[in-house]
């Protein structure tokens, strides 16, 4: 009997939800270890991931193997828990192309979307040049996807794979990331929008997002990940610092 895989996460970020959706698609049992933002760079989590970034998993079916970095986790889960190749490559070329897109997601989409989100939402000073640069990079990445999805429903082959899922959580944050008008996130990228809607219409995605909403409510967080009532990340970090200093006295 497969024991539940522990998924350590902080619920606001996109990256943990790649892992959760894939576990849902593969019907692999799991349990979420939800931690607060202020505890990501503290023990016990840094005993699992010294880089202090979520997600990380602990697999009790493999002598409590710990894996961090979402791309590495995805690869591991598909190697160990997808024997029927439901989401994985079924040929040499498919496997190569899946890895190609996974690396592009991890090195292209994630960092550029994240930087756009930072400068548009959280940087203490408004830096128009940085905002413009990273918004352009977001659109450049979307343009790559738009062209490669022309005449196709999925990135690799004729079926959903793990790379389609890997792109979905960041694409789902487009409006927040770029601070565009509501409904304009995919403007100019109809192939990407249709592809994203195919992924997010799946039961695994919907169930995962219901879990996310519940965890966000439990931590009293807003859609952008800040505690309700907080006006900025800096205000929150100041409060965390003051609490830590008071606790150490």
UniProtKB/TrEMBL annotation:
<feature type="domain" description="GST C-terminal">
    <location>
        <begin position="91"/>
        <end position="223"/>
    </location>
</feature>
<dbReference type="Pfam" id="PF00043">
    <property type="entry name" value="GST_C"/>
</dbReference>
<dbReference type="Pfam" id="PF13409">
    <property type="entry name" value="GST_N_2"/>
</dbReference>
<dbReference type="InterPro" id="IPR010987">
    <property type="entry name" value="Glutathione-S-Trfase_C-like"/>
</dbReference>
<dbReference type="InterPro" id="IPR004046">
    <property type="entry name" value="GST_C"/>
</dbReference>
<feature type="domain" description="GST N-terminal">
    <location>
        <begin position="3"/>
        <end position="85"/>
    </location>
</feature>
<dbReference type="InterPro" id="IPR040079">
    <property type="entry name" value="Glutathione_S-Trfase"/>
</dbReference>
<keyword id="KW-0808">Transferase</keyword>
<protein>
    <recommendedName>
        <fullName>glutathione transferase</fullName>
        <ecNumber>2.5.1.18</ecNumber>
    </recommendedName>
</protein>
<dbReference type="InterPro" id="IPR036249">
    <property type="entry name" value="Thioredoxin-like_sf"/>
</dbReference>
<comment type="similarity">
    <text>Belongs to the GST superfamily.</text>
</comment>
<dbReference type="InterPro" id="IPR036282">
    <property type="entry name" value="Glutathione-S-Trfase_C_sf"/>
</dbReference>
<dbReference type="GO" id="GO:0004364">
    <property type="term" value="F:glutathione transferase activity"/>
</dbReference>
<dbReference type="InterPro" id="IPR004045">
    <property type="entry name" value="Glutathione_S-Trfase_N"/>
</dbReference>
């Amino acid at each position: 009997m497969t024991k539940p895989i522990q998924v350590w996460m902080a619920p606001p970020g996109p990256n943990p939800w790649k892992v959760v959706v894939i576990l849902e698609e593969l019907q692999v049992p799991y349990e979420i270890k939800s931690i607060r933002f202020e505890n990501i760079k503290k023990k016990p989590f840094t005993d699992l991931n010294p880089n202090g970034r979520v997600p990380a998993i602990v697999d009790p079916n493999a002598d409590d193997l710990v894996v961090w970095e979402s791309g590495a986790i995805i690869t591991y889960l598909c190697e160990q828990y997808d024997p029927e190749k439901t989401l994985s490559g079924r040929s040499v070329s498919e496997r190569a192309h899946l890895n190609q897109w996974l690396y592009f997601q991890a090195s292209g989409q994630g960092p550029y979307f994240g930087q756009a989100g930072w400068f548009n939402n959280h940087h203490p000073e408004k830096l128009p040049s940085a905002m413009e640069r990273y918004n352009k990079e977001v659109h450049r990445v979307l343009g790559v996807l738009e062209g490669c999805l022309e005449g196709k429903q999925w990135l690799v082959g004729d079926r959903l794979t793990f790379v389609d899922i890997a792109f979905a959580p960041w694409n789902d944050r487009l409006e927040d990331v770029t601070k565009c008008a509501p409904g304009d996130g995919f403007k100019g990228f109809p192939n990407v929008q249709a592809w994203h809607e195919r992924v997010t219409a799946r039961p695994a995605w919907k169930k995962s997002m219901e879990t996310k909403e519940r965890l966000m409510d439990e931590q009293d967080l807003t859609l952008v990940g800040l505690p309700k009532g907080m006006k900025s990340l800096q205000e929150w970090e100041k409060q965390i610092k003051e609490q830590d200093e008071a606790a150490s006295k």
